[in-house]
Amino acid sequence: VLRGFVTHTASALREAESGIQVSVGGVVTGLRRRTAKKSGAMWAQLRLGDLDGYVDVQVFPRTYEAAQRVLDDDRAVLVQGRLEVEEYLRVGVMLMWDELGDQTESHEPE
Q1: Inter-residue contact 63 to 107 (CB < 8 Å)
Q2: Which residues contact 23 (CB under 8 A, 6 or more apart)?
């Protein structure tokens, strides 16, 4: 269903270059809502799983504000953001859609 919208599966991200823009779809698990120490703004960490694996995702404060209604465990979402390859894979989210096609606002990562 998501084939026309995603640029990578979770497992294909392991072969991708750090810093590229990616679109990944899957089901949210391990949602953790956080508060930024300095600003007090809310943000989230989650694991996004598809049929091939999973990727860790960070939802930055401005995007989190717009995406709160989409963020729940066991919810199917499509995220677009920048891939960071360090000790593990992480996608910093700029856009997010839920299974109904509702889109959050677009923001650059902080």
Answers
A1: yes
A2: 5, 6, 7, 8, 78, 79, 80
